[in-house]
Amino acid sequence: MAHSPLSSAGLDPRRRRILFRARRRGLHEMDLALGRFADAALPELSEAELGEFERWLDLPDPEILGWITGEAPVPREFDTPLFALLRAAPSLETSSS
């Protein structure tokens, strides 16, 4: 399945900020993981899920990357259904194209 980036044109200001921050992280792997997840999920996220996504964006890249790849345990406060969707997304496996 081809990756199709989300356009920010039809998004509200909060979602546009989240999309921008998700695509421009410090680590390339995080650009891929969070950016692709945002492309796929952002338009449909609830207000509570948007808040959770924003909390992810405030985390250091190496920390959240360890949780995504399974190299570190996910803290209870971040071990949520939404984070499980992020971990299940095929963002890092398909990044070698």
In words, what does this structure look like?
The protein is mostly helical. It has a single domain (13-88), classed as DNA polymerase, domain 1. Helices cover 55% and strands 0% of the residues. The chain has helices at residues 13-23, 28-41, 47-57, 61-69, 81-88. The mean pLDDT is 86.
Report the strand count: 0
The span between the termini is 12 Å
Could you estimate the helical fraction of the residues in percent?
40-55%
Kindly identify the CATH topology: DNA polymerase, domain 1
State the fourth-level CATH superfamily: Flavinator of succinate dehydrogenase
Shape: globular
In the CATH hierarchy, what is the architecture at level 2?
Orthogonal Bundle
What integer is the average pLDDT? 86
Biggest sheet descriptor: none
Structural class: mainly alpha
Count of helix runs:
5
Q: Quaternary status of these chains?
A: single chain
State the domain count: 1
What's the CATH C level? Mainly Alpha
Task: Quote the beta fraction.
Answer: under 5%
Order of helices and strands: HHHHH
Uncertain stretches: none
User: What would you report as the Rg, rounded to the nearest angstrom?
Assistant: 13 Å
